[in-house]
Amino acid sequence: MHKRINPREQKRMMQRMGMNMDSVSDVEQVIIRTADKDIVIDEPEVAILQVQGQKMYQVIGGQVSEQAPSARGTTAPTKPMFSEEDVQLVADQTGKSLDKAREALKEADGDLAKAILLLS
Asked: In this predicted structure, what is the pLDDT of residue 67?
């Protein structure tokens, strides 16, 4: 038979070995994403075990379900990338204000020629 270890004694032993364990409170969901599916765990218990500077997350229990990757719906909209020099160039070429040039560049997804045509 195995002798049960007192939780306080167990914590001391872990600290002597350079291990630290904390729990994460109020976890609602854990999602593990793979190339072909998402594994969703609702209302799990999560513990962080820190050993020699490395963190390990332990997920315990919860309701497990699998979803297709297309059901994610969490991709953030991409922000058009253009510089202030682009804004100035569009404003100079069209004779419009910097604000109007910026709006045109946003509408044209950063395409200079398209933004100039929109303002012409």
From this structure: 85
